[in-house]
Amino acid sequence: MAENHILAVNELGKAYVTNDTRAEILDGVDFVVDTGEFVCVVGPSGSGKTTLLKCIAGLIPPSSGRVVFEGETVTEPPAKLAVIFQDYSRSLLPWMTVEKNVELPLHKAKFPKAERPAIIAEALANVGLAGKGKLHPWEMSGGMQQRAAIARGLAYQPDVLLMDEPFAAVDAQTRIELEDLVLEMSRRLKMTVLFVTHDIDEAVYMGDRVIVLSGAPAKVARDIAVDLPPERHQLHTKNLPRYGELRAEVFELIQQAKRPVTQNVGVVRA
Ligand code: ADP
Ligand code: MG
Fold first, then answer.
1. pLDDT attached to residue 1
2. What average pLDDT is seen over the chain?
3. Residue nearest to atom 19 of ligand 1 (CA)
4. Interval 1-51: pLDDT, tens
5. Where is the ABC transporter domain (predicted)?
6. Nearest CA among 42, 142, 62, 133 for reference residue 96
7. Distance between CA atoms of residues 178 and 54, nearest Å
8. For residue range 117-155, what is the model confidence (pLDDT) as tens digits?
9. Which of 128, 151, 202, 269 could connect to 123 by a Cys-Cys bridge, CB 3.0–4.6 Å?
């Protein structure tokens, strides 16, 4: 069974220990992702989404449970997994051109030097930045910078792309454009994406599945198959009655999750 899943999060727990205080952030988070799926993880701010993503990416060790990527338990950042973070202004190096930024991860991996220009050009074209490679990040709008960060993730040709609230720092119009860009790209390139957001609308609009995190510590409250037509459209999809129902279901789960938090902030003495 497990062989069909490209990624499995098994009973994952994570606590941060600072001084003598132990804060339980994740408790028994459990789900799988199949090849080619677009899976959204939604939860309120501070619920542990970035913590979950960092465990999946092998950047921090879990306190319990494990992450299995392509059949191997993750103990360090896997080579075939890329992460795109929220804050593009901190992820792109300002003194390098966009081209050079996109080239950065290619140095580490098995990309022959002669092939890199074509890989970079294709990645930039895929995000609508063809011909913009010679610009520096500071010569670009926020939306263009985030496109460049996405291009860098793509150039690396990962088997799974992890995205941590990638559009939280851009304006509303750019956000809509980037949502549609990522959806279109993921379909065209048959990518497997795990997309983390606190935005309920974004999660339902983007996902083939929505995993709702709730509680403190967080666990999977529900794993919802998004039974909307696969081709998404900002107006038509969001006008469908089913879209409204799914949105309401996620909203309710998150509201329920917030209630106990006031009594139990998830902090206990170690
Ligand atoms: P989200 O991404 O859902 O907003 P995070 O995973 O960033 O949530 O954070 C979850 C909780 O863990 C927050 O209360 C945050 O303050 C805490 N936290 C995050 N990183 C650390 C850390 N390195 N050490 C201690 N606490 C942390
Ligand atoms: Mg976060």
1. 45
2. 91
3. 51
4. 445 799 999 999 999 999 889 999 999 999 999 999 999 999 998 999 999
5. 7-240
6. 133
7. 23
8. 999 999 999 889 999 999 999 999 988 999 999 999 888
9. 151
In this predicted structure, the answer to whether residue 82 has a pLDDT above a threshold of 70 is yes
Superfamily (CATH) of domain 35-60+76-213+220-259: P-loop containing nucleotide triphosphate hydrolases (3.40.50.300)
What angle, rounded to 10 degrees, do the helices at 98-108 and 142-155 form? Answer: 30
**Partners of 73 in beta bridges:** 68
Mutate to test the pocket of ligand 1, among 22, 40, 50, 51 (most ligand atoms within 8 A of CB): 51
4 lines ligand 1 (CB under 6 A): no
Bridge-based pairing of strands 21-34 and 64-69 is unpaired
Residue 89's pLDDT band (boundaries 50, 70, 90)? confident
pLDDT of residue 189: 87
* Domain boundaries, given as residue ranges, for the chain: 35-60+76-213+220-259
How many other β-carbons are positioned within 10 Å of the β-carbon of residue 32? Answer: 17
